[in-house]
Design goal:
It is a single chain. The protein is mainly beta and 255 residues long. It folds into two domains: 2-95, Tumour Suppressor Smad4, CATH 2.60.200.20; 144-235, Sandwich (Tumour Suppressor Smad4). It has one helix at residues 119-131, and strands at 3-8, 11-17, 23-27, 34-35, 46-51, 54-59, 66-68, 71-73, 75-77, 83-86, 89-94, 143-150, 155-158, 162-166, 173-174, 185-190, 193-198, 206-207, 210-211, 216-217, 223-226, 229-237, 242-243. The radius of gyration is 20 Å and the shape is elongated.
Amino acid sequence: MPLLTLKFKDNVLGRYPIGRGASLTIGRRKDNDIVIDNLAVSGHHARIDGVGEAFVLVDLQSKNGTFVNERMVASHRLKHRDVISIGKHQILFSLEEAPAAEEADPLPAVDRTMVMDTPTYRSMVEKSAAAAPRGPAPRPPQGARLAFVSGGKGTLTVSGNLFTLGRDPACDLVVRGWRVGRTAATLSRRPDGWYLSYVGGFSRPRVNGRTLRAPLRLADLDVIALGGVQLQFFVENEAEGEATGGAAAPPPLRP
């Protein structure tokens, strides 16, 4: 079972297994699965979701950001031995189990998050800025894929300017369930990316576990849930047949 090892400097503070399909939250508040009681850490700082065979780290709009291997990320598919930096703490992601260790007693919680300003933090921010794309803005995405995580198998190609989801047989993706609207949601292509919008029905779509309240521009690896279906979103460039960023598109995820 994959393992997360929380460290501060050279001290191991705790080890946390995460199973396939599970979710785990990281932050300063006591209701998190991994509690990091440090003023540089937001109350709910980040989350790791087990999606199919993958594990995806998502920053929860934290004040000081989430870093993987010294690069700031909003969403990142974790690989073996990736190092997650949150505040002054590090979390090592490993696909191999390690010996159990006692967890340190948490310190008293403090409500206010402080802005970090240390040489190491500034260096990571500068590296992230240097790695950001420069020059002309990239072309709008020409296509996308939806890979079933649960409720189906395989992948769907999203093309054109509009893709519909709902229980109506005329929808591009038919989702069963009386709470699902006839047309429950749409995926629309805009100049700056693909947007998911709620249309109707008792069941609103969720993205990365959050209920959709307004049109949302999707990011690569976002997970959409509607009714009994979960789908992972992948941006593609149809002209080159590649995922955004030039890397080959990942294989479809299986439930």
